[in-house]
Each structure stands twice: as C-alpha cells, then as structure tokens.
Fold this sequence. Notes:
The complex is a heterodimer. Chain A has helices spanning 18-27, 65-69, 95-99, 110-115, 125-131, 146-150, 156-160, 177-184; strands at 4-9, 36-45, 48-57, 75-77, 83-85, 106-107, 139-140, 166-170, 200-203.
Amino acid sequence: MTSYGMVFDVKRCIGCNACTVACKQENSLPDGVFFTRTLSAETGEFPNVSRTYLPTICNHCEDAPCEKVCPSGATWTRDDGIVMVDADKCIGCGSCAVACPYDMRTQIEETQIKAGLFGDGNLTPFEEQGYSRFECGTFTKCDFCSERVDAGKDPACVATCPTDARIFGDLDDPDSKVSRLIRDRLGRQPLPEKNTRPKVFYID
Amino acid sequence: MFNISLKNTLRPGFAGRTFKSGYRFQRYWGTPMATAFFCGETGAGLFIISMLLDFMPGIILGLLITGVGKTFFHLTHMGVPSKSWRAILRPDRSWISRGLWGIIFFVGFGSLHILGQIFGVMPEALAQPVYYLALAGAMVVIVYQGFAMSHSTAISLWSTGLMPVSSMLYGLLAGTSLITILSVFGFSAAHMDMVITVQNILLVGVLVTLISLLHGAKNGSKGAQQSYVLLTSDFLARPFLYGVVGIGVLIPLLIGLLASQNTITILVSGVCVLIGFCLFRLLIFKAGVLDPILSPADIFKR
C-alpha cells in the first residue's frame, strides 16, 4: 500500500521560500493564502546568533484530527494517505481549522478572491482561471499537489526546491528515499505529542 | 546546531500570520461562534430547569433562545450557510454533527411538548416519550459544544474534560438565572427558594471549574501556559478576572449567600451571571493558543 509523505532536511533549507511561491503558482492561491510556509527563528545571543528555517506544510496525518471533526464529510483521506478537502461538501464551520495543531487550514474569503493579487479587483487571466476552483467561505489546504502526484510527478514545492531540502515519496516502501532518510537520520515528526501521526518528517 | 529554545526565540512572541515561528492564536472561531455557544447553553439550561419545574414561560424562552438565537449566530459564522444542513452527516465522528442532531431533537420535540401542553392535543401515550426526547436533545445541546472544544488537541486550553463540565454548569446556571429574572417580571416558577439554592451551588461549581481550568492551563503545554498568562496577567486578564470571575461568579455568590432576596438583588445577580458567562465564552475563544510548530525542534538539540 502506498502512503505518501515528505521529509524536510532542515540542514539544507536556506529559507528562500521558492517552495511557497511555487505552491501559490501551482494552486492559484489568492493573496494571504499559503499551503506551505518556511518559518524562521533567530536563535542564540549576540554575537553567537544564527537563523534557522523550518518548512511547514499540511502533515497529512494518519490520524488526521481535521478529518475526525469534520461534520460534513468534506475532509477525507485517499488510499495513498493524502488528506483531501472536497470544497463542494465544506460548510465553512472551521472545526477543522481549530482541530489542526499545525495551523494549516485556511478559509477562502470572498474579499481575497474579489480583490485579486494586486488588490484592485482586476483579476488577471491566471487568477480568473485559477480561482474558479475555490468556493468562498470554504476551508482549504495542501493536497500534496495530488494532480501532479497522480501524473507521477513530485509536488510543486518539491520540484522547485533548489537545495533538495524537500523530499517526497512512499513511506510504506522501505527502500524509498524518504524511508531511508527517516531511518538513517532519525526523522522526527512535528508536535508528536498531539498523537496525529504526521506523515511529514524533519531531519537535521 | 538546531537549537531552538522557546525561551530564546518565542517568548513573548506571537507569530500571528507571519513567517516567523511562535505561538499563534486560533482565529477561526470568533464572536459569532462564541455567541452561538452562549445561546445554545443558556437556552438548553433554561429549558432543562424549566422542564423539571414544569415552568412553561421558561420552556418557551429556552427553546427560542436556542432555536432562534443559536441558529442565527451559527449561520452568521458559517462560511457557506446554504450548505449548513450537511453538518448532520457525520454524527459517528463529529461533535458538531452530534450537536446538530441534538438541536433537531431539542427544537422538534420541545415544540411538540409545548404545543401538547398548551393545546392539550398530545395523546397520553406520546406525551411522555416527547418529554424525554426533548430533554435528551437539550442535554446534548448543553454539553456538545464543550465536547467539540475538548476534542481539539490543537488548543491545549480547550483540550480538557473540564470543557463539557463548564458548558453544563454554566448552561444550568444561566438557566436558573433567567428563571429568577423572569420572576421579577411576573413569571414566577414554583420552588423559587430551591432555584436560588441550586443557583448558589452551581456558582460554587463554576468557580471550582474556572480555578481547575486555570490550574490545568498553568501546568499544561507551552500553548496552554500562554493561555494562562493571557487570562491572568496579559490583555485578557481584566475581563477574565473582573468580568468572568468577579462579576460573573463572586458578586452573584455573595448576593445569594449574604443579601436578602428582593427584586433588585435577584435582577442584579441574574444579569451578572449572564454577563460573566458571555464573557467566559468569548475569552475562552480569544485565549485559544496553538502550540508553536517548532516546539518539537527542541528535540533536535543533540
């Protein structure tokens, strides 16, 4: 059985946010909506200061709290482990957003769609075509670029990462690159204490 | 190398919607949802107490507060109100869905009970089941919101069994308060002395629950500790300590225990309870903090 997951090599991440831009472009995300973010944090005290980057994305949890609390059945998990949202079924109650420990759910607001990326209400042809997939008021999130995955490609953020800090693959295949990285470099999940069993791992 | 300590990098920083690491407020359940919760619990509490006292004005008002008030504010909150009916589809796993079924039972059988009582058209064989089904629906409505919140492990302040307990206690307390307020306007229920005694007992229960909630937050995860700070010494401290605890619990408790019962003290006490409860609902939503996603990064320190 396939179970897709992702590994973030935080040693390689340079915080360029090319993944963020690629994701926004691939998914035609309106202003203010992000499926992936690269968070930064300054550590240490002067003069020994460094900045670290941590890419974040929907963790496509095995025990996804967003799916459990969804009252309308809009959130569901594919056989390959990708957690999906059906915008036609979403009622916009926000229970998924308050259940997600990773803050990875975003509501599509009418103002975001109408204002457009330039904020003047004049949508570009790219926006007009892209925004048609969204329904105002519903919640959305990363789906690992499921249409690309179905076509045998990597998600857009993985394909565009210039340092190969993002690695995508089958967690159920012990010989896949992600499985080997997790095994060899002790991959860790975000907020493991929440018992959501994320399928995103961090290595350093 | 990957040494990200909360002490160094995250305090006192809330990240907001930036690309910084840090605490984040839950931002999707706001005032409309809090008001809907308030209406649901108050209406259900009033309905339950009134059913037990066979107090028809309270039964009708409780049904209206939940059926109209709660429904209105829920629809205001919904991103796609026209599809809200879909929330009935997953009672097997979602407390929101179970709650909607509770509302349907509560409003449906509650209305039948009222019609039966007023017009006397309910057959004897049906009156008893309708009574208990309406009561069961109200019981679900009074607690399900607490369960929905406690189900969210994301927000540590909410992720506690005290949430449904507080929902129940506050709902019943608001119910008794509304019954005492109604008595001021000439709609007096039977056993008013007992209602006031129950109100005092519920006030003590609410006070213990609030202290337990703060105690749990203080000793909980980093996010819960932030919630504790927000509620006790940060910008939410005044409304919480003065409003929820002072006005909402201590003043009515002192009035109930020390002052003589007259129109003014009953009215002041009842209104104080409702103000405190409404503030509690709002502030618990406002103080909901997500743990920093970087918190597991502490384990990278090797």
